[in-house]
Amino acid sequence: MTLDVQFQTFFAMMVTGAVIAAQLDVYHRCLPHKARAKWPQAIFDLFFWVVQALLVFYVLFQMNQGDLRIYVFLSILLGFFIYWQTARPFFLRVLEVLISIVETIYSMILKVLYLFLWTPVVWLYKGIKQLLTIVYRSIRWLLYSFTYWLLRPLYLIVGGSRVVSRLTVWGKRLRSWFSGR
């Protein structure tokens, strides 16, 4: 391995350490609050560090065919430390701004979906319900009118008001007989 490749590997690993530190900040900021219990966070942490290890080995393999030396670990720690001491406050501010922008866009998308998809569905449902109510009442009115027109002569022939009052009296007697009074 030439000296140039070693310097390139050193700087690449330093950048990788800084990237890992930045990703750690993003991970801690974006970890759901519900996942901060013991077991879910342990699983997420394990997955995060496995991905970081794969990233390190990928970069190392691209730089020097995966030749692992002690300066690789030192350069990762140096990159992590440099990020932590210099760029972290600025990165956290930028991260918060980006998160607020993403939240705003997400909120706008939800409002647009609500306005253009959900609201017309609700209006359509209410319109269909109102139309069915009107149709139901019209059919009921027609049936009532037709029945009234059909049975009205029979009612007049039988002496309808007298029959209705007798039926009402019999109904009261039957109710009192069944109720035991």
Automatic annotation (TrEMBL):
The chain crosses the membrane at residues 6-27, 39-62, 68-85, 97-118, 138-158. It holds the Pfam family Spore_YabQ. Keywords: Membrane, Transmembrane, Transmembrane helix. This is Spore cortex biosynthesis protein YabQ. It comes from Salicibibacter kimchii. The gene is yabQ.
